[in-house]
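thought: fold this chain, then report.
action: predict
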Amino acid sequence: MENKEYENGSCKVHVPFNQGWFDELMKWKKFDLVSLLQKILKSREDRKVSAVKMGIVVNWYLEKYGQTAQVLTAMEEMGELIAALNQYFFRDKISADSLSKEIADVEIMMQSLRVIIGNDLVDCRKEEQIEKMLKFKEESEKKAK
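observation:
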């Protein structure tokens, strides 16, 4: 896997690039890679402001509606994302913009769930999963040799 560098204003991002994965993706959906990367860079520029705003919104919704309502809303948003992924990648019925809105909804609800469950616990489990995946990757690469 090679790294490709893309630039948008003062932001640079190194993107791991796997040609096989990219070719497989292109079979399913034609898209403009430059536009996609510009959206990623823009989102990184806005991340600091968004984190503060997200904290305000998440805490307000939890206080106003409670944990049960937020869990049910998270489940609903995840279902909508599954449907949108299907429509985008396999049926070509929605735009990347529509899909990105569903992804954003789920990310916001995931933040609510992190607050409910505990950020530290989620971070710990996430790190464990990443280590497990890296181990699997290394073992797969050894077998391939």
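thought: worth noting. The longest strand covers residues 2-8.
final: tokens above.
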